[in-house]
């Protein structure tokens, strides 16, 4: 067989293999669409009935809304509900929109001490759909420059159900409900039931303060308690033995303290990975070449990278969907194409909120 014949044979085999893989992928996609499409129809009917009923009741409801770095907007009520169906995208079901407004008696005003940062925040508020009535520079009693921002107390809120192109789940986009901007909920097929719609309605009406925000599973909480208890005992033993050796080894201990470098430990699916500064950069993603491989549709091939800079471990996101960081003692943070220093302990979840994708939670802790 000539070289050209051999190359043609290899090319034909590759074409057949790609056709088989494409056929398998198309079949899987059709099956997922058959599962999700009926549920979008049910959500459509539920939202229409929900809005019609609320319009008949015509009862404004107290609403809470807080702008990070500025404070709460007081006296808001939510009303004027509407349902709208978006345009279909090929075979995908059309997106479904639930809309209403938060409005109050007056226009809230905030005074910010950092005009440069405040101007950036004002642009973010405008991008979120909030109406900025006025921005005025002023000086306080000490002569320091401030920025006074006045908003219109009429905030547009939107919830959107849609099916992404990968057909893995239904996305629920929550915009300007409790704070400016958009938050994404992931509703997997196994979570679709009538109780979920009931919970969603109660969440919208602020009768319950959560939706798809589950607690950490019992077995994870138990492991966490055991770990914290173990660390507490180790700390007590170290402090007890240290006090006995304080006079004799103080100089050596102080030298060791200032020479010590932190360690970053990850725990994922029962396996632990501990990084020292010399182990970075360290990557997490869907690619098999990643130091920690996380296989999920919402995870990018190279999702985020851990660096060590200026004495701190830094997480740098390089993904499409961002990385969610939830410290034990703080609120969940989403970063996208940005970098943030890690401290303490908590959970990371690439591409989905840590409270909604329990399967791909990554526990982290910084050991000094």
Description:
- This protein is α+β, with helices and mostly antiparallel strands and 368 residues long.
- It folds into 3 domains: 27-106 and 153-204, no CATH class; 217-259; 261-367, Tumour Suppressor Smad4 (Sandwich).
- It is 33% helix and 32% strand.
- It contains 5 helices and 22 strands.
- The strands form 5 sheets. Strands 1-4-5-9-10-11 form a 6-stranded antiparallel β-sheet. A 6-stranded antiparallel β-sheet has the order 13-12-22-21-18-19, with no helix packed on it. It has a 5-stranded mixed β-sheet with strand order 15-14-16-17-20, with no helix packed on it.
- A hairpin with a 5-residue loop joins strand 7 (132-139) and strand 8.
- The chain is globular, with a radius of gyration of 26 Å.
Q: With helices defined by DSSP (H or I, 4 residues minimum), what is the helix count?
A: 5
Specify the overall morphology: globular
| Terminal Cα span | 65 Å
Beta-strand segment tally = 22
- What's the alpha carbon Rg, rounded to whole Å? 26 Å
Secondary-structure class: alpha+beta
Major beta sheet, strand line-up: 1-4-5-9-10-11
Query: Percent of residues in beta strands?
Result: 25-35%
Helix % is 25-40%
Q: What is the quaternary state of this protein?
A: single chain
Count of discrete structural domains: 3
Order of helices and strands: HEEEEEEHEEEEEHHHEEEEEEEEEEE
Mean of residue pLDDT? 82
Low-pLDDT stretches are 213-218, 254-259
| Largest sheet composition | 6 strands, antiparallel
């Amino acid at each position: 067989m000539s070289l050209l014949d051999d190359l043609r044979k290899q090319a034909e085999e590759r074409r057949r293999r790609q056709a088989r893989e494409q056929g398998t992928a198309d079949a899987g996609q059709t099956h997922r669409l058959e599962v999700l499409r009926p549920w979008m129809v049910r959500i459509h009917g539920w939202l229409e009935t929900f809005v019609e009923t609320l319009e008949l009741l015509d009862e404004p409801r107290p609403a809470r809304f807080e702008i990070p770095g500025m404070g709460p907007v007081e006296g808001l009520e939510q009303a004027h509900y509407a349902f709208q169906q978006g345009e279909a995208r090929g075979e995908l079901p059309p997106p479904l929109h639930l809309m209403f407004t938060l409005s109050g008696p007056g226009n809230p005003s905030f005074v910010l001490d950092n005009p440069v940062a405040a101007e950036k925040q004002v642009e973010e508020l405008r991008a979120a759909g909030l109406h900025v009535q006025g921005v005025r520079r002023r000086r306080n009693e000490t002569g320091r420059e401030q920025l006074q921002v006045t908003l219109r107390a009429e905030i547009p809120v939107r919830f959107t159900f849609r099916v992404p192109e990968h057909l893995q789940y239904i996305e629920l986009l929550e915009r300007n409900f409790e704070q400016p901007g958009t938050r994404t909920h992931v509703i997997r097929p196994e979570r679709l039931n009538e109780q979920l719609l009931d919970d969603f309605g109660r969440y919208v009406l602020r009768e319950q303060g959560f939706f798809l925000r589950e607690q950490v599973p019992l077995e994870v909480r138990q492991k966490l308690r055991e770990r914290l208890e173990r660390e507490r005992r180790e700390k007590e033993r170290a402090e007890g033995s240290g006090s006995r050796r304080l006079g004799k080894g103080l100089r050596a201990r102080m030298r060791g303290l200032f020479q010590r470098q932190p360690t970053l430990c990850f725990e994922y699916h029962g396996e632990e990975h501990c990084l020292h500064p010399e182990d970075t950069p360290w990557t997490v993603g869907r690619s098999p070449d990643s130091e920690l491989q996380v296989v999920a549709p919402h995870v990018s091939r190279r999702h985020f990278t851990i660096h060590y800079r200026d004495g701190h471990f830094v997480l740098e996101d390089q993904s499409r969907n961002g990385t969610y960081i939830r410290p034990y003692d703080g609120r969940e943070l989403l970063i996208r194409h940005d970098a943030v220093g890690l401290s303490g302990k908590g959970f990371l979840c690439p591409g989905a909120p840590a409270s909604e994708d329990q399967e791909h939670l990554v526990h982290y802790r910084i050991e000094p």
